[in-house]
Design goal:
Helices cover about 35% and strands about 25% of the residues. It is an alpha/beta fold. It has two domains: about 5-185, 3-Layer(aba) Sandwich (Rossmann fold), CATH 3.40.50; about 195-400, Rossmann fold. The strands form five sheets. The protein has an eight-stranded mixed β-sheet with strand order 12-11-8-13-16-17-18-19, with helices on both faces. The chain has a five-stranded parallel β-sheet with strand order 2-1-3-4-5, sandwiched between helices. A two-stranded antiparallel sheet has the order 6-7. Helix 1 crosses helix 9 and helix 5 (about 95-105) crosses helix 8. The longest helix has 19 residues, at about 385-400. The chain binds cytidine-5'-monophosphate. Cytidine-5'-monophosphate (C5P) binds near residues 282, 309 and 327.
């Protein structure tokens, strides 16, 4: 679903406007982007038309405005497909609580929701609503679903609201949104033509037919990195241990179970890989003799013989012509010392470190990047935001070497 823009769609924005006072800011946004050379195609919901007239957007963008799923003028009545196919990015600003709820549930009962569902380009939303609507668990649940689906959520800000209350829910200002949209279009081609291989999640090392050794890695960081790489225009392959996450639709997805499986999958892909990002929490040991049957309980102690698993990252970084390798290190103590040491041991140009107790399973993390120039702190943010920052850092280092 989220394949980033082709050359023709590079500068084409589909601007969705839903019902909210902030719709007037969307008109200013349309003006700013059009002035900066972007092709802006507006789609308004019925509720949006109550706040601002379609003619306003038509005049500011120089393009017809669509409001109706049943527009007989659109080719074969396929406005919902055609509009999203032409766009490099869809931005919905303002995105009302109602629209967010519909999006989270895959509803398609008007032109805007239908074309969001039928899109093959990234979708960004700029929420705007009363602070209590924003804080409502239903809205937060819907937003969390959208984040998991790879939808980019920008804002809202805190401040005075149209209803007179003060709090979270103000849509970002038009100038800020214009900058964000332009940056998204710039990012979209950063890694175009590059093959990126990401490993994610834990591995599962069988003990017997039903039991195994694993760890608490949720896979969230690795999946976020894969999404950010897709957003940056790369061709992404995601090799993942067992997790409960949906992989980005545009990535090639290879599910695996054990460290040995993961190594095999990596070896199959590595020849075509430009950048290898090893986020997976690979088990360090596996059981030497896996019982084919469930081991029966007895009163006696049970000893399992553990043997080391292959170090996948080290195997790749030791290849005669390795791709650009990025390692991750989750440490529980002495983060900086251990991470710097690990970078040397693994022989990788970039190592990303975090404190395991903060990062595992959480939606947020603070990261420290270790490379030849020293340390770079990425202050606490959502894993998706950290992944985007990381991809930009990787792009900088990679372009210096190539
Ligand atoms: O040695 P440690 O497990 O802390 O190293 C972490 C880094 O090495 C991560 O990037 C992880 O994906 C990778 N790794 C690996 N194969 C292993 C163990 C770790 O690729 N067997």
């Amino acid at each position: 679903m989220t394949s980033w823009p082709s050359a023709e769609s590079k500068k084409r924005l589909l601007l969705g406007v839903t019902g909210g006072v902030a719709a007037y800011k969307a008109a200013e946004l349309a003006r700013l982007l059009t002035q900066n050379g972007m092709h802006v195609q507006t789609v308004m919901t019925q509720a949006a038309c109550r706040f601002v007239g379609a003619v306003t957007f038509q005049s500011l963008t120089g393009n017809p405005v669509y409001t109706d799923l049943w527009d007989a003028n659109a080719a074969q009545n396929m406005a919902h497909i055609n509009l999203s196919r032409d766009a490099g990015l869809i931005l919905v600003a303002p995105a009302s609580a109602d629209f967010i709820a519909k999006l989270a549930h895959g509803m398609a009962d008007d032109l805007l929701t239908t074309l969001c569902l039928a899109r093959d380009c990234p979708l960004m939303i700029a929420p705007a609503m009363n602070r209590q609507m924003w804080e409502n668990p239903a809205t937060q649940r819907n937003l969390s679903r959208l984040r998991q689906d790879g939808i980019i959520i920008t804002g809202p800000a805190s401040g005075e609201q149209a209803c007179g209350e003060v709090g979270m829910g103000r849509m970002l200002e038009a100038a800020e949104l214009a900058e964000i949209v332009q940056a998204a279009f710039r990012t979209a081609t950063l890694l175009q033509g590059k093959n990126i291989l990401v490993t994610a999640g834990p591995t599962f090392e069988a003990i017997d037919a039903v039991r195994g050794i694993t760890n608490r890695s949720s896979g969230k960081m690795g999946y976020a990195v894969a999404r950010a790489a897709v957003e940056a225009g790369a061709a992404v392959t995601l090799i993942s241990g067992p997790v409960c996450l949906t992989p980005p639709a545009a990535a090639k997805f290879i599910p695996v179970t054990s460290a040995e499986d993961m190594l095999r999958a990596v070896q199959t892909e590595i020849a075509q890989t430009d950048i290898f990002i090893s986020v997976a929490a690979v088990a360090d040991y596996r059981v030497a003799h896996v019982s084919q049957q469930k081991i029966k309980k007895s009163a006696a102690n049970l000893a399992l013989e553990l043997v080391p698993t292959p170090d996948i990252l080290k195997t790749v970084s030791s290849l005669p012509k390795p791709p650009f390798c990025v390692g991750f290190a989750a440490e529980t103590e002495n983060l900086e010392k251990n991470a710097a040491m690990k970078r040397r041991k693994k022989n990788v140009p970039l190592l990303v470190a975090n404190l395991a107790q903060d990062a595992i399973g959480s939606d947020e993390s603070e990261l420290i990047l270790f490379d030849d120039t020293g340390q770079h702190i990425l202050p606490k943010a959502s894993k998706m935001e950290q992944a985007r920052r990381l991809i930009k850092h990787i792009h900088r280092l990679y372009s210096q070497q190539h």
